[in-house]
Amino acid sequence: MLPRSIRLTRRLPLIALGCAFAAHTLAAQPAAGLRGLVSDKSTGRPVAGAQIAIVGENRRTATDSLGRFELAGLPAGAVHLTVRAAGFPQRRVAVDLVSAGTIERAIELDSTAATRMAEAQALPEVAVTAPATPVNYRLVDFERRRQLGRGQYLTETEIVKSGAYNIADAVKNMRGVLYDCGGGAGCFIHMARAPMRCLPEFIVDGHVMNDFGPHTPIRDIIGLEVYTGPTEVPGEYAGRFAGCGVIVIWTRSGPTPKSQ
After folding, report:
1. Under CATH, what is the fold of the domain 32-117?
2. d(Cα 8, Cα 171) in Å, to the nearest integer?
3. Which terminus has fewer CB within 10 Å in the chain: N or C?
């Protein structure tokens, strides 16, 4: 009978081969995908800008202007999602993903449920004696998007406090934003994830203004939104240039948006 040390030595290559085979088998397993539509159960309309996150993983996406979303490269099996949107209660959804396939899943949010919850949680009346904070109605959508936290935002107070002397100076320290002055073509803002010479879209008071936008006087700006890529850009600003990033500027002299 062979000594124990020799028997163990002979087994080691077999153990290593088995581990390598198992690792290869796991690596060869194709990923799954999920796409679908988020809509309002009460009206049937698509919900744009809904935030969809995978529980327990740092993976998220958002619906486009048509309420569509897609997630790729997911592990097969049961996946739990949280779905959030302004004006809707949060919903948690479980999806069983099939390996090597993309499945469709429709998700409904109920806008009337938020109203019912607010009515059910009515609080006793409280007398308020402090003066109301003035509201700039032109920045209602700015504030709504800022609460969602998909992009990066600067208020007029923050811009003044920073001491920035132009837009590039105000955003140069933001995550994913570069200020490029090379190549002899002058200085310009460039998103780190965008291809070279793929410049962001500038939207001033709701209108695309790529010529005037970068040179808007900083003292005229009362709100600034920066989206560095298509996964951050809200549905109302999504388009063919979303991959280059979007910078939204609100000025004190712009028109007040009409109610829809």
Report:
1. Immunoglobulin-like (2.60.40)
2. 63
3. C
Distance CA 217, CA 246 (A): 18
134-139: long-range contacts at Cβ-Cβ below 8 A with a sequence spacing of 24 or more?
Answer: 136/222, 137/256, 138/222, 138/250, 138/254, 138/256, 138/257, 139/222, 139/223, 139/250
- What's this model's pTM, rounded to 2 decimal places? 0.47
pLDDT at 58: 81
Q: Rounded to whole angstroms, what are the CA distances from 179 to 169, 175, 176, 187, 212? A: 9, 12, 10, 7, 18
Instruction: Look at residue 74 in the predicted model and tell me its pLDDT.
Output: 84
For residue 24, give Cα distances in angstroms to 27, 99, 113, 210: 5, 16, 48, 50
Residues in the chain, pLDDT under 50: 8, 14-17, 20-27, 259-260
| CA–CA separation, 106 and 249 (whole Å) | 34
What is the tens place of the pLDDT at every residue in 37-62?
Answer: 999 998 999 999 999 998 888 888 99
